[in-house]
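NADPH--hemoprotein reductase
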Amino acid sequence: MKKTNRNVVVFYGSQTGTAEEFANRLAKDAHRYGMKGMATDPEEYDMSELSRLKEIPNSMAVFCMATYGEGDPTDNAQEFYDWMQGTDDDLEGVNFAVFGLGNKTYEHFNATGKYTDKRFAELGGKRVFDLGLGDDDSNLEEDFISWKEQFWPAVCEFFGVEATGEESSIRQFELVVHNDINMNQVYTGEMGRLKSFQTQKPPFDSKNLFLAPVTVNRKLNRGGNRHLMHIELDVMDSKIRYDAGDHVAVYPTNDAAVVSRIGERLGVDLDTVISLKNLDEESNKKHPFPCPSTYRTALTHYLDINNTPRKNVLYELSQYTSDPQEQENMRKMASASPEGKALYQSWVLDSERNILLLPQLQARYYSIASSNKVHPTSIHICAVVIEYTTKTGRVYKGVATNWLKNKEVTENGHKHTVPMYVRRSQFRLPFKPSNPVIMTGPGTGIAPFVGFIQERAWQKEQGKDVGETILYFGCRHKNEDFLYQQELEEFERAGVLTQLNVAFSRDQEHKIYVQHLLKKNKEQLWKLIHSNNAHIYVCGDARNMARDVHTAFYEIAEEVGGLTHTQAVDYFKKLMTKGRYLQDVWS
């Protein structure tokens, strides 16, 4: 920073790329206030050097921190988080600010951002501006813009500087076309090492993906208009290890027909080899995606061509717009005004428009539907194909699920492959098999429990004392989408599954969901939880199901255990802290 005269460093903890994008926007904004910024991955730096930031006059560290899973830091922020927990460095004289990215439907809303803000203050850092809390359940970007609009005036006041009035430079990357290049030097979809798809070497992670052959791809539901599927990936030669409850990250590719349409629209030869080079030579990120690559590879493997554009992109595009009315509309949508927000909501979000100024295509995470004790060389996925018609009549297809659906196993022996790695999770069976388990997972939320039940069966075979294993599953119709019905009923007959409770929500006039069945068995459940040390697991939709299940457990504690509502909330909070109430939920 000293060498390059920078005084603002913006660290990001990012799982899907949004926090990284916000960090880049803040770093670019800095020059409008006579400051010089850089956006940085904490994984690439020794954070114990942070206390030296005070050696640079008018300096500050800003943190854009996303919370992942059940209050966890993102993968790239894990070491930084561990450092914060263990350090006693004196950060007096270090100026800081934090913007958290979270989702209110989750129990531990913005836990990582809140902890970063609190910890830096405890270590003596000086808070330049209040903690910002973005909520992805409403509009994360609007929360960020509102925070940013107050953040910079506070920075000006804190450091005694003024806005220069300069707009931030739009062009971040320069396009270089390679007319004469050895194709062995060109990326073809790899995330890290060039040619890593041709010569596969463990260990496999987010920068070095394993190409797992698809050995099974079968439809799970017998009827209805949805497509639910069970997929098996062969990891025999990978040295990949997993536990029941972990997640498998898969890297999908975009639809080839859509990629071709984009090429036509832009009037480019998709097989032209290009590089995008960062105009900021001191940046540690030289390219936005692996370069050199062809337009086709970039649009197929690296860029999210289905994403709706963020407001800053609309603002940047407006500067190239020749039509004054279009320009005014784009600037309006990029603003924080009520009229602009409404226009952005209807024209961009509701219509699900996408754009060619593109964010990076991200990994998709699926709860593993198998146990490594029973299937040590394969990883199973249970997923529903996403496809629906938007308000403007366009058919929207989920990138990853439609891509997976097409990975059919052919009779000629050719096997499709899936680039993947395993992400560890805290969603684990009890250490002692004798502890009872209560699992609640409607729809594809059944996935980790298939692995859990397989593991309990294996433990039983090993002669271990296995506690009660109770499942609450929900689907629409018994004859259509009772997933894994045969396997589950087999486990019940064998005495592995002590109780199989299934809510068929639409098989009768009034809807019945898993939470209704929980309430029906309240006495038994309270005894298992309160007296027998049972572990509770919930998997599936965070917005409605997980909340409703939560409420059902509160009511059970109140009705059977005689607790007040406040005591019930506190009771289950303590279970969460002890790791006896675990959730694997998504919004």
